[in-house]
Amino acid sequence: MPEVRCYSMNISEGGMAVSTFVPLSAGEEVQVQFTLPHHTAPFSTESKICWLKTGHLGVRFVSLSGEHKSELQDWLSQKLEATLPGFVARKFQKAESSSLTALADGKQDNGTGRPSS
Question: Does the reported pTM lie above 0.85?
Fold first, then answer.
């Protein structure tokens, strides 16, 4: 298949929507390559076209590596956090901090090899 350049409209852990007027078909298997902003290494994955609208299509990632999936999840989390209002983000940070403290407290060793109560 020839190389087709598209513009990404949105991306998730499972796929992305792109803008293109190249005629493709739903169900068609394609190789997708993209680079996240501020990253140098491109992601490359087998994908399948899952929906079409005039000038737009959606692809589902079929074979995204575990490493790339984790990197994409981290990037998406950072983007989400950056868009949250400050008071909402602080609530999540406090909840996360409390959970980490509780986990750390539960794992303290009392000298017997078991967590202290």
Answer: no
- For the chain, the distance separating the N- and C-terminal CA atoms, rounded to the nearest angstrom, is 63
pLDDT (tens place) for every residue of the chain, 117 residues total:
678 888 889 999 999 999 988 888 899 999 999 998 888 888 999 999 999 998 899 999 999 998 999 999 989 988 887 777 777 667 766 655 555 555 655 555 444 445 444
- Judge if 73 and 57 occupy the same domain: no
Q: Which residues contact 106 (CB under 8 A, 6 or more apart)?
A: 115
Strand partners, 43: 34
Show the domain range for 87.
67-106
**Number of domains present in the structure of the chain:** 2
Task: Write out the H or E segment, with its range, that includes residue 69.
Answer: helix 66-83
